[in-house]
Every structure is written in structure tokens, then in C-alpha cells.
Task: inverse folding
């Protein structure tokens, strides 16, 4: 069993829809949770980071963490074609090494 | 967000030569940087952890004599692929750990695409 599970998709939504992404994890030592967006042939871009259970909002992005269920989510409101990318959840414990999900490929249709 | 650069962005070399890739944190100091490689349609694979002023820590299965890492300053880490072979062709990405302002996260560089002929 992988430490971090993420459905690779692909996920296709119409422009303006809400994109819902999630990951589950098994390691209780994970303390830091991040979401990255990666376009083809580019390095990952940090979208959101959070350290505690609850919601965190930044513009069109909302990150949720539920440590009791070992479940994290990312919501993208009013999705745009430019949001089409691969989204990676990542988390780390106090060794500061990132453990990644497999990545979900998202396509937003114009 | 913070910016991490990599140079070069793309390199083509002959088999047997060495290639150096630089990773710089442009607007913050990074005592720790990480090096990854990524194959097409796969997630990132951690190769090594680079600590400023000390030896790098390599993940299991990564040859430290093959992939030389130097972290000479708080803003620069280098990865040298020695005696490169075609199987070393890959996308190499670095990240830098940012702990400024009480946060704990990592920012990634844009990646370096290596092709060994």
C-alpha cells in the first residue's frame, strides 16, 4: 500500500465547474500538506499549503485537511481552461521529505 | 511565492561526458534542497537531500558517485551527472525548503531536461 493514494483520473470538466481533488494517506506522522500544479514539461508549482485540519482558502482554491480521517482535498472554483494540468498532493513529516500522490490529470473544456 | 531557478533548462550531451545542473533559490535562503527525477507520466522520484555545508543524503538505489551533489551556499545546490549514459536521460527537478516566516514548505525549480546520446 502506498503512503499517499491519489486517483490519477483523468478528470474532465466544463469551464466554470468546480474541480474536486482528493488524497488519502496512511502515515500519521505527516504534518505538512501541500498541493502542486504541474504543466507538461515544467516543474511543480505550489498552490496551497496547510499544517492543520480545517479549510484554507486562497482565491479560487480551497484546501481541506482532515487529519482524523487522513484525507485531504483541493477544490478549484470557476475552473478555466488554463487550469488544465496535473495536480499533485504532497505531504511530509518532520524529515521534510515530500511524499507525493500519483497526480490527477485535469482537463477543463472551453 | 518564492522562486527557484534551474540552469540549464535543457541539455544534450554525448555518452561518457559529465553534466552539471544548478539550482538556485532566488529570494530566500535554503539550508536544504532536494533533487528529483521524473519519467514521463510518472510522479517525482526523490534522489537525494542536499544540506548546505554537509554531505548529501542519497535515497536507496541512487549511486552517490554517479550523481554528485554540492550545496556550497544557502542559495545554490548543484547536481553533476558523471559519465552520463542514455539511461540517465530524464527530467531533473530540484526543490528548496523554505522555512521563512514560520512556514514549512518547498518550492520547485522549472526542471532540466537531460538527453544523453
Result:
Amino acid at each position: 500500500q502506498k503512503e499517499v493514494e491519489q486517483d490519477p483520473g483523468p478528470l474532465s470538466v466544463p469551464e466554470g465547474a468546480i474541480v474536486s481533488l482528493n488524497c488519502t494517506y496512511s502515515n500519521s506522522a505527516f504534518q505538512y500538506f501541500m498541493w502542486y500544479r504541474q504543466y507538461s514539461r515544467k516543474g511543480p508549482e505550489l498552490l496551497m499549503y496547510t499544517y492543520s485540519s480545517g479549510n484554507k482558502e486562497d482565491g479560487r482554491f480551497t484546501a481541506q485537511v482532515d487529519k482524523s480521517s487522513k484525507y485531504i482535498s483541493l477544490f478549484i472554483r470557476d475552473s478555466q481552461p488554463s487550469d488544465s494540468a496535473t495536480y499533485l498532493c504532497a505531504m511530509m513529516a518532520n524529515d521534510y521529505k515530500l511524499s507525493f500522490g500519483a497526480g490527477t490529470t485535469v482537463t477543463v473544456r472551453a | 511565492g518564492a522562486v527557484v531557478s534551474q540552469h540549464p533548462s535543457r541539455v544534450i550531451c554525448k555518452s561518457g561526458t559529465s553534466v552539471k545542473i544548478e539550482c538556485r533559490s532566488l529570494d530566500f535562503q535554503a539550508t536544504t534542497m532536494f533533487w528529483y527525477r521524473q519519467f514521463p507520466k510518472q510522479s517525482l522520484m526523490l534522489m537525494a537531500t542536499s544540506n548546505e555545508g554537509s554531505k548529501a543524503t542519497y535515497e536507496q538505489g541512487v549511486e552517490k558517485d554517479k550523481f554528485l551533489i554540492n550545496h556550497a551556499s544557502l542559495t545554490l545546490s548543484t547536481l553533476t551527472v558523471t559519465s552520463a549514459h542514455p539511461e540517465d536521460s530524464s527530467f531533473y527537478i530540484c526543490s528548496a525548503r523554505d522555512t521563512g516566516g514560520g512556514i514549512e514548505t518547498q518550492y520547485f525549480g522549472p526542471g532540466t531536461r537531460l538527453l544523453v546520446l
Notes: The longest strand of chain B covers residues 90-98. Chain B touches chain A through 23 residues (CB under 8 Å). Residues 66 and 82 of chain B are 5 Å apart (CA to CA). The mean pLDDT of chain B is 93.
